[in-house]
Design brief:
Shape: rod-shaped
Order of helices and strands: HHHEEHHH
Number of helices: 6
Strand order of the largest sheet: 1-2
Number of strands: 2
Mean pLDDT: 86
Low-confidence stretches: 173-179
Helix content: 55-70%
CATH topology of the largest domain: f41 fragment of flagellin, N-terminal domain
Structural class: mainly alpha
Distance between the termini: 23 Å
Strand content: under 5%
CATH superfamily of the largest domain: f41 fragment of flagellin, N-terminal domain
Length: 284
């Protein structure tokens, strides 16, 4: 094509190159500003879709962890209360054993009985106060179920224990039938009653300790699953990062290169814009 004032192909080409460099520079600057190579669907629709799905999954696991933390809190309160009841029964066993001695005086028996009944009545108070976020799992009732995954298809059960004293005098347990559990009216007013109460306290203590072992195992499972969920979230976060995070070292190097290229492109455009002035020399 000849020299023309109307059409400057050199300037047009230089402008196109400069615009391309500017667009690339804008992209690099955006990555540096956000730290992301895929910040929105326009950057890479497929990768953005996957990343958003995984972000949603990560957020859903936050809800799962809240539930597991709540379950752990309930279990911890139950264990603390159960251990207190176990300690109370240990003390009651000591009082009942001492009061079952037929040689002690009436005054001593009355003192033992007073301490025994005070400890007995304390059990109900401990159970009533073993509450976390409105839940009490040592006073009987249905088991509690908590979500273990984001779809609700897997759950973890926190067992409910019944550590309440038997209403009235102690009653026989199903197995072995010779054992009896402590009742709300058992006392040490006589040597015979003290001996009976002693045996009932022993049976109740064994039962409570057995139930605490069961609750402890459930609490450990909750803790282990919570740790697993935390690790799973970390893995999800790492996976998202590998897809969408920008390599800032690389982007920094690109930024320097593109800034120089932009400056050169501007100079090239300036030179191309000056080329029509050559026509003036033809008319001198």
């Amino acid at each position: 094509m000849g020299t023309s004032l109307q059409t400057n192909m050199g300037a047009m080409s230089a402008l196109q190159n400069l615009n391309a460099t500017t667009r690339m520079l804008d992209t690099v600057q955006g990555r540096i500003n956000t730290g992301l190579k895929v910040a929105n669907a326009r950057d890479n629709g497929a990768v953005y879709n996957i990343a958003q799905q995984q972000r949603s999954e990560h957020a859903a696991y936050d809800a799962v962890r809240v539930g597991l933390d709540r379950a752990k809190g309930i279990a911890d309160v139950a264990l603390a209360a159960g251990e207190t009841i176990s300690d109370i029964f240990t003390q009651m066993r000591e009082k009942a054993l001492a009061a079952s001695d037929t040689s002690i005086s009436a005054t001593s028996r009355a003192a033992y009985n007073s301490e025994f009944t005070a400890l007995r009545d304390q059990v109900a108070s401990v159970i009533a106060n073993a509450v976390f976020d409105g839940a009490n799992v040592i006073g009987g009732g249905a088991n509690l179920t908590f979500m273990a995954n984001t779809t609700g298809t897997q759950t973890i059960v926190l067992p409910t224990l019944d550590l309440r004293l038997v209403t009235g005098a102690g009653t026989a347990v199903a197995s072995p039938a010779v054992d009896v559990y402590l009742g709300t009216t058992d006392d040490l007013s006589t040597a015979a009653l003290a001996a009976t109460a002693r045996d009932r306290v022993v049976a109740s203590l064994e039962y409570v300790n057995s139930e605490l072992s069961r609750m402890g195992a459930s609490s450990k499972r909750l803790e282990s699953h919570n740790i697993f969920v935390s690790k799973l979230q970390d893995a999800i976060t790492g996976g998202i990062g590998s897809m969408v995070d920008a390599d800032l070292a690389t982007e920094s190097a690109k930024l320097q290169s593109l800034q120089v290229k932009q400056q050169l492109g501007a100079q090239a455009l300036s030179i191309a814009n000056q080329s029509p002035q050559v026509i003036l020399s033809l008319f001198k």
